[in-house]
Amino acid sequence: MPEGPAPPPPPNLAPGAALQQPEGAITVAVGLGPTAPGTRPEVQLVDALERAVRSSAAPTTQVRRLRAGVGDGKQVCRERRDDLVILVEYLADRAEPVLLPHDCRLDRPLGVRGADAASYPELVAALWSEHEALVRDGAKERRRTRLGPKVRTGLIVGGAILAVGVAIGVVVAASLRREIVVLTVSP
Length: 187
What we know:
Rossmann fold, 33% helix, alpha/beta
């Protein structure tokens, strides 16, 4: 038996394996909020934000870029794809854009950051430490239910069978109902 480190495990070639996030990684969505019109400086700010989020060392991240006009952080969180959403937005009392983070796991907004925070790789660490502080203070995380493809297919097929069964039942019930029509002819 040769001495030395064990060989690395073979890569996972199962379908969808590339879409799975590494253990401990969080998913962060970045983009323009509804109040940002999408000017060149705002798009450059989102680009810088995306680079900073990708370069986060702890926690590790997977970044998803949102299309313009997708909605506010709460609406994006309803998709249940992300752990954090960071949008470039405008507030009524500020002339320059700000970063509005929303914690999807806790379903609550986090502290507003200035536009200059978009270029700091420590931004995600600061937001995640704010998340962990809220959890320590008693905030409850949403339950993460991930349905596998077989379960999802089973639910869809079950719903289709139920719908077809109800339709056939209505047709059979309508055909069994007796109807008597009386025609009277008067001169």
